[in-house]
Amino acid sequence: MTFSLPEPPLFSRSTVDRGGEFRGNHGAAQQAWEEAKVLLLDGRGRFRVATEGGLHWVSGPEAGDGPPPDAVLLGVDGETFYWARRVDELDEPLGDARSAGHHLSGDDAGLLVTALGMLNWNDNAGFSPTTGEPTAVEKFGWVRRDRSCGREEFPRTDPAIITVVHDGGDHILLGRQAMWPERWYSTLAGFVEPGESLEQCVIREVYEEVGITVADPQYLGSQPWPFPRSLMLGFAALGDPEEPLRFLDGEIADAQWFTRDQVRDALVAKEWTDPEGGDDAPAAPLRLPGSVSIARAMIEAWAAAPPPANRRVGGDFRRVGGEFRRVGG
Fold first, then answer.
1. Which of 23, 76, 199, 276 is deepest in the core (most CB within 10 A)?
2. Residue 33 in contact with residue 68, Cβ under 8 Å?
3. What is the pTM of this model?
4. End-to-end distance of the chain based on CA atoms, in angstroms?
């Protein structure tokens, strides 16, 4: 069974030019300041919500006489420069990427996650990791320089895999962390280690979290996840429902194989999938991740795909001599 994402996840849909050629071009930025738009975020990553439910942008002149030294250039669309800046307080109403992201356009969603990732990095990059000396902002927030030695520091993104484990037919394996609400299950994920390919990370992380071997990792898509600075790389992989589940690294409190019908029922239960579903929605046995996540997009894509006539893969692969190998047809 193969399936794909019908469209990029929400945070990966922006078409706004990232404006790399304008980073540090103070003349161009000042000249375009009258038409600039600035996104203000507080220390918790919250932003003001516009009347129609999207991002509330303030004009350049509202934010100051020119680009503030702590503002980050997010991108350029025609004559409009987009900026982000951290502030101490914001007026109501407030939203954040997780709770209000589903109201955003693809462009606004992409600008928001760029703002979050860049402001989070700048908040924690005030000192050089090499010398411990203070760093200075350059190129409108995209570089920090250690003036004592001239070393440049660039934004960091941590790659992490996130995996739909399925049996090639009607079953999908989802896990739940202990801190999550009851019945909340999602795909398995983990950070890529040095010296490891993405496919190797899929196999290792699934084994460490639920104790089963998987095969045929297939790339599905990616999405930035700036909490604080990750890039989620989506995969599908085959697993055997008959293999015992073992929670080896302690990250997963429970995992279960769910049927396609159970997942489809959960996707239409607004209590679990729509923040506006309210308390009157019927309780569902399975609670799924929110609509802004790539996990939700991958689960939806798997649930929508028709299963093949041969619905089982059990016995196709096993750990052999420390490696994952197919042992049957």
1. 76
2. no
3. 0.88
4. 15
